[in-house]
Design brief:
This protein is about 55% helix and about 15% strand. By secondary structure, the protein is α+β, with helices and mostly antiparallel strands. The strands form 2 sheets. Strands 3-4-6-5 form a 4-stranded antiparallel β-sheet, with helices on one face.
Length: about 170
């Protein structure tokens, strides 16, 4: 269940909320050295100001590939190369884009809830298969359900926080 929550937090970090964050570029993959590699393996991502990201590309020959990968990533960003540094301005979010991001956050949260419920199902199956008395099975099943409810609430809380952050102008 902790894994589902950690994955959700990573996915939320990739949703931009108008502020620059290095996590925004984590899903970007660059065509380099004959294969696709994560952006973090070809350069250093930094946040010099609140609405700007920079990527210090280590190999000068990959600057164009990094610029192209960021542009084609579907994040709605328009990078500009400046020597070995690729500058990525973060545009202000439109109302329409905020609604899209909010829906995406909801989808991520629902995926996390499904993962938590899958863990609950596995736990319940293990409890039922064990060779213990019915009263112990009932107690353990209640504990697993309480734990599941607590994690679902944490997912809902994280979604509410991200939604507030996205809709903040």
């Amino acid at each position: 269940m902790d894994g589902a929550l950690e994955t959700l937090k990573r996915e939320f970090a990739g949703l931009r909320s108008g502020r620059a964050s290095p996590a925004l570029l984590e899903p970007v993959r660059v065509e380099a050295y004959g294969s696709e590699v994560p952006l973090a393996q070809v350069g250093t991502v930094a946040v010099p100001e609140s609405r700007m990201l920079t990527v210090q590309v280590w190999d000068r020959t990959l600057v164009g590939a990094v610029e192209r990968a960021i542009r084609d990533s579907g994040l709605g960003l328009n990078p500009a190369a400046d020597g070995q540094i690729v500058r990525v301005p973060i545009p202000a979010l439109t109302g329409e884009r905020r609604v899209e991001l909010s829906k995406a956050a909801g989808r991520y949260a629902e995926g996390a809830k499904i993962a938590v419920r899958g863990v609950r199902r596995d736990g319940m199956d293990q409890i039922r298969k064990s060779e213990i008395g019915e009263d112990v099975v009932k107690d353990w099943s209640d504990e697993v359900q309480k734990l599941t409810d607590a994690y679902v609430k944490r997912v809902d809380d994280a979604l509410a926080e991200k939604d507030k952050e996205i809709k903040q102008v």
